[in-house]
Model the fold of this input.
Amino acid sequence: MLLLIKSPTLCFSLSLPLPLSSGFYWYFGYIINLQNFLSWTIMSYCARIQYEKIGSDVTMQCGSLDNDASVTWKVNGTDVKARRREEGPRLILMEVNMSSNGLYSCFQNPDGQRRDQINLRVGLPPKEPQVTCRSNTYPKGFYCSWHLQHPTYIPTDFEVDVQHNQRPLEVTRDEVHKNRCHVKFPELFTSFPYRVNVTAVNSLGRASSAISFEESSIGTKSNQILRGLCLKQDQNNFPVELSDSTSHTITDAYAGKEYIIQLAAKDMEIGTWSDWSVAVHATPWMEEPKPITSTTESDIIPGMHELPTVRTLLSYSL
Amino acid sequence: NHIQNKSFCVHNVCVCTVYLSYLGPPFSDPGFSPPRPNSSSLSVPSAATRVDLWRGLENGARLAQNQRAYSVLLCAVRELARSTLCPYLQSSLMHFCSGLSGLLGSISGLMNALGYTSLPPSTPAQGYAPLLSSQFQNMEGFWVLRELQSWLWRSAKDFTRLKKRLQRLATTVHGLN
Done:
């Protein structure tokens, strides 16, 4: 009797020859394996994951077999073709790379019974993460975000700790952005810097980096905002600095040329410029727009380059 | 109502940076962040405050806190200038003191105009007594500038808030007339 158990996870796709006269029990990923008619052992048939460093030599051990056992290895159901050495129950792959990734299974000779499954994932230990902090909810608190410049190819977690005046602060991880955390200001106008330490951790190693900043350099939210405009056309940038107005008309753009417009803001008294906004594309029209005739029913008027004016764009982005 | 916050930077050279390099290590080290000396040895009031307390400050109290802070700071920076051996630094600090003095005058003037009691200008700032040991002096100098930075940062927000409140008050009064 062949029992095939399929499941979305790797744990369950296996086939077992089961003797009719014996019962079996399975519970969550564990299947009681009838090794022989006299003893039972519980073996986890969830393929275990093995993380290894790219470029290294990797040893995979087939279950808990003796050193003189003889096994056959397969990767993703096919023969292993990479450079390797086999020593008893061990498979040693040389200088693994991304193509070495796969599900390795070992079958004991001569009965052909599968003894183990290893999900090999090659990757790299993390390098120092890049950390930035800013406040867009001043004076309530600030948030920090981080990223790894170089991918690790394997799951990597991050630990964050924030210190202020030699005291640790409570850090709340963002629910949506997994590489972001939020911190409340314990007090305002303190004379101590904040120190944020982010550590990247995975199975192959860890790396951390820290940044320090004063409250005054974190950025502010205020009603007195200076707005700056940047026009880009071909390779030229035309920065236009504005006052606290909320609309602006550009009068010297070339007709027919596409412009890219972005906006940034800064508190008038104190603080730094915000990030540039999402870019808006606009092309000043070549000919005067034709007046809308009452007989036209559709919204789209052919022959008219109805593009939003700069004013519309600005009030939209503000 | 123009209360100018004197920038810490004069001719693109920040007085604080110059003074720190004058003090030398460890004060000039970028990451240097020692614990604050306790209030008995450092009489400059801290600008630090809880968000809710700061928001709830009455106009008179807000101004009084600034006035007290700057009168102590003025005295402290004057003392720093006096004890500085480098002439360029000394003149920078004295120039900065004149800015602080102007700021203090504006605050007192505003307080009088609004009918709040303020410290008499001739009273020397209470509690500021310069320490004699040179190592303590350096630490004192470091912390005076630190607190000055915090107060300048805070005052900008104090006065913005005050201005909004007074403007609201003025329009209410105007509406009543």
